[in-house]
Amino acid sequence: MLRGIFRSFFALGVLTLLVAIAPSPASAQLAAGCTCPAGSVPIGPAICSAIGVGRFPATCRANLNQSFNHIAASDQQLSFFGVEQVLQGRRDQLQGTLGGQRTTSTITGYSESAFDGPFGAMGYASQSQSSNPLASPVYTKAAPLPSPTTSGPSFAAWTQGLGDWEHDDPTSPTDSAHSSSTYASQIGVDATWKALAAGDDALVAGVVGSWTGTHVTYAGTPTNTRLEGPGVGVYATYVKGGFSVDTTVKFDFLRMTTETVGAPPPLPVNLTNAGASGNIQYKQQLASNVFVEPTAGYSFTRTMYGANAALNGLSDGNTLRLQGGARSGVSWVMGAVNAEFSLKGLVYSNVVADGSPTTADPMSPNAPTDQGKIRGEFDPALNLDFGQGYSMALSGSVRFGEGMTGGSANVNFRKQW
After folding, report:
1. DSSP, res 25
2. β-bridge pairing 54-57 and 47-50
3. Residue 83 host element (H or E)
């Protein structure tokens, strides 16, 4: 009897305490797109409580799923960016702009005119008529250059580390602001053929492997998402004089896990990014060591979800990015090291950016995350050629636009045989 009375008073005391510490529904408001389970009340933007039952997370999946395709596509765009930086450095070597004293392309394998003296660029050699330093020199026509022949392949290997951070504001009433940090590593091997169809052309083709890890947090929710996994692809660039074009085709195999404080984790979801990117550019020499290079390009990613996707309200989506701009650079020589600094400015937009609908909120539209938004980007790069086939590059990007800020940095090392 006494034990029953004691239990009743104890339960009443716990109930009173919970009522006292729980904010009233009027003082707490859920984030847009969140709902509380039956019998519970909101106590925060994404947390609900039920008296005598415990705490329940709010259903905020609608806030999260619209961003998944965007985040997955951003991972592959970062990988494309890394490969493009490697190809950019190799292209500059072939075109002869990596090194402040080069005035002609090195594609043909001819000797660099820098070390022929001030008249080397015109193909003349000087001979003194006498030992008198005041005597006028006599210039004779140098022997004709030999006809170029196809050479190669010459092989190379490279490794690269990348880091990226981005913050995106909400883009719809059921979206949530999120921040993502990504770390990736890439390795590649390729071959170079020179003088294929003409004396001033070259082809570089290779394969790339990668590992990517991304951590995403969402404002107003106790939820975070992780994507990680390997990738594999092929790439190539063709150079003819100042003209060049490059392409990369890649597949990324990622595993997505989502964690919410106070709730059991949902089943992980596997996804595949299948994508391609390409760029075209034309380099124009403004001076012996200064150039400008207009450029335009694209990247396309198809994000395809595997098992458990339907349980999480996910559906496949496409992202197509178009960009255009120009790069300018200056090169110089530091002892035995050829150096080049360049800055690329781009205007870009995800002209197609499918969002993911969600079963948690069937009325949530299949809305894009940032489709049609015009963004800007600056890409600084420092390339160093140490000779003997060794080179490295430090590069990055600063991205900005409506509702978005971000940036990346990467370093790569390359050995050319």
Report:
1. G
2. antiparallel
3. helix 61-95
